[in-house]
């Protein structure tokens, strides 16, 4: 909340004038006295709506000028003010994407004009609450902040925190590298989605006090591609100073793209789209762009690695892991972790995946193949020696999880803990009670973090009666970290910060426990591999 200086003569004015002075103060202030659902921000007044649990939600607020027309493939521009009160009662449009990958992302709800965010607050006042800004996942090609799973009301209420979720440009509109095709003017086009996230954080810093949030205590958190985004933002010059804390859930810095790889994706995309230059791309309708992206993703098995951040020498001058190791985020408190059985989530899309041997799946995952190299037999034998009852598929799932998620996350924790003592590591181990093939798979922690255990899209993962106690543990932990930079709270036993000696890790389950260096022998198999997007790389 911006400061408000009350002159000495205020005692001599009438009560009506006092009320007026409070209602029509500085730009970043409370507004709508009596209603409790109006905030005045830099763009004007925003009208929110009370939720069923007593919080107030503001939805669909633009944080940037719509990236359309000449602004397509350009960095986000500041938002324009509006004249009348903005009705912030409905989610904004979803970023265009090939498939309906989240609730609320049907074609009719998609638009290139998608740079909006949502705010949940216990009360529109000047309480200076911690702010938690969530970045959704979806492989940088799907997802939306309007997914009911990310509704921030329960988290906001339980923690007395201000929660923000946001949309950002995806796929061929957010991560299509045009530096080789369009020259310096488009040097940043491969990272527009990250620049959108940074623009949203700038908006939060400038406006969140109007919603009762503390601009000096902003925590970013994300899952999957959102977690990878969190880590990238920690090493991105344009995001420096925009947040105080960061939580990375199941995503690190091992799948960023080189310019060569990104340019090869661009060439293939333009062939699908039937154009040869940036002017041709700008002439396409959004529907044509999505159609071309869909065709390319169907044609290429590695569709999940087509689009995403690029180490472009501009937005990301060098691999973010290297920058973090050099101290780029030394002032950022950091909590990082993965789930025990991450890659088992893909058994939903590929039935029988967890019955295949490592050698069978290697040809389909080049990065996995490069990580294992000629040592695949010895690596498989090493994992098997600690799992005598495991099947070939079980070993594949364990190795895949470590290569793609757990060990890359450890590398980020190693780099950050050397510069910031407030670095914490967790391992989420609660298994799905619905499907034994899932275990503690990718994304299964999300309904517990947000407290949205009745989300219909998650029933097939967590069942109809998941443990409320686990939701309490997860929320209390995330909230404690957002409030102080230290996740210790009454719901977990004593938790020590992470370093590369003890490697203290909180095992998050219904009965949480701390363990030093869990699965140590598995981790040591990968010693010497940085997982920095250079070694191994996608290309």
Salient structural properties:
18 helices, alpha/beta, 14% strand, 539 residues, 31% helix, four-stranded mixed β-sheet, disordered N terminus, Rossmann fold
Explain what this protein looks like in three dimensions.
With 539 residues, the protein is α/β, with parallel strands linked by helices. The chain has a single domain, classed as Alpha/Beta hydrolase fold, catalytic domain (Rossmann fold). The protein is built from 18 helices and 15 strands. The protein has helices at residues 15-23, 153-159, 171-174, 179-182, 192-207, 225-234, 259-273, 278-283, 286-299, 320-325, 358-361, 366-372, 376-385, 392-417, 446-450, 459-462, 468-484, 520-524; strands spanning 29-31, 38-41, 44-47, 49-50, 56-62, 86-87, 116-121, 129-135, 162-166, 213-223, 245-249, 333-339, 423-428, 504-508, 513-516. The chain has an 11-stranded mixed β-sheet with strand order 4-5-7-9-8-10-11-12-13-14-15, sandwiched between helices. Strands 1-2-3-6 form a 4-stranded mixed β-sheet, with no helix packed on it. Helix 7 crosses helix 9 and helix 13 (376-385) crosses helix 14 (392-417). 51% of the residues are buried. Mean pLDDT is 91; it is low at 1-34 and 101-105.
């Amino acid at each position: 909340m911006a400061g408000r200086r009350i002159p000495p003569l205020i005692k001599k004015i009438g009560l009506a004038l006092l009320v007026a002075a409070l209602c029509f103060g500085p730009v970043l202030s409370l507004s709508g006295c009596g209603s409790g659902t109006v905030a005045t921000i830099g763009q004007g007044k925003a009208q929110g709506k009370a939720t069923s649990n007593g919080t107030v939600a503001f939805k669909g607020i633009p944080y940037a000028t719509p990236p359309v027309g000449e602004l397509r493939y350009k960095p986000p521009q500041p938002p324009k003010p509006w004249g009348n009160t903005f009705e912030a009662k409905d989610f904004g449009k979803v970023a265009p994407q090939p498939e309906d990958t989240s609730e609320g992302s049907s074609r009719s709800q998609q638009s290139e004009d998608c740079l909006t965010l949502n705010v949940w607050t216990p009360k529109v006042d000047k309480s200076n609450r911690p702010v938690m800004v969530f970045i959704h996942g979806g492989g940088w090609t799907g997802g939306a902040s309007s997914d009911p799973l990310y509704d921030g009301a329960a988290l906001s209420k339980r923690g007395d925190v201000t929660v923000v979720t946001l949309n950002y440009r995806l796929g061929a509109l957010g991560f299509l590298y045009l530096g080789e095709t369009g020259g310096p003017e488009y040097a940043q086009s491969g990272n527009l989605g990250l620049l959108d996230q940074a623009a949203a954080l700038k908006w939060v810093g400038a406006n969140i006090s109007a919603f009762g949030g503390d601009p000096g205590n902003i925590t970013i958190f994300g899952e999957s591609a959102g977690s990878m985004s969190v880590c990238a933002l920690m090493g991105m010059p344009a995001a420096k100073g925009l947040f105080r804390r960061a939580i990375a859930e199941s995503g690190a810095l091992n799948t960023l793209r080189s310019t060569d790889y990104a340019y090869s994706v661009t060439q293939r995309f333009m062939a699908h789209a039937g154009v040869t230059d940036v002017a041709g791309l700008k002439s396409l309708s959004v529907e044509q762009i999505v159609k071309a992206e869909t065709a390319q993703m169907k044609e290429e098995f590695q569709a999940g690695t087509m689009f995403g951040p690029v180490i472009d020498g501009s937005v990301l001058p060098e691999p973010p892991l290297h920058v973090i190791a050099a101290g780029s985020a030394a002032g950022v408190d950091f909590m990082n972790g993965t789930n025990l059985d991450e890659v088992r989530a893909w058994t939903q899309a590929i039935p029988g995946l967890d019955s295949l041997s490592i050698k069978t799946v290697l040809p389909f995952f080049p990065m996995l193949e490069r990580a294992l190299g000629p040592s695949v037999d010895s690596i498989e034998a090493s994992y098997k020696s600690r799992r005598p009852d495991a099947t070939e598929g079980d070993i594949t799932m364990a190795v895949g999880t470590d290569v793609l998620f757990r060990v890359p996350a450890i590398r980020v924790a190693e780099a950050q803990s050397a510069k910031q003592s407030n670095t914490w590591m967790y391992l989420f181990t609660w298994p799905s009670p619905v499907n034994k093939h899932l275990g503690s798979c990718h994304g299964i922690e999300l309904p517990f973090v947000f407290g949205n255990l009745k989300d219909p899209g998650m029933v097939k993962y967590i069942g109809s009666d998941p443990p409320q106690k686990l939701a309490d543990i997860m929320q209390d932990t995330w909230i404690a970290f957002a409030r102080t930079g230290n996740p210790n709270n009454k719901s977990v036993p004593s938790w020590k910060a992470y370093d590369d000696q003890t490697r203290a890790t909180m095992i998050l389950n219904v009965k949480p426990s701390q363990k030093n260096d869990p699965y140590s022998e598995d981790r040591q198999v990968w010693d010497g591999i940085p997982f920095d997007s250079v070694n191994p790389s996608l290309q």
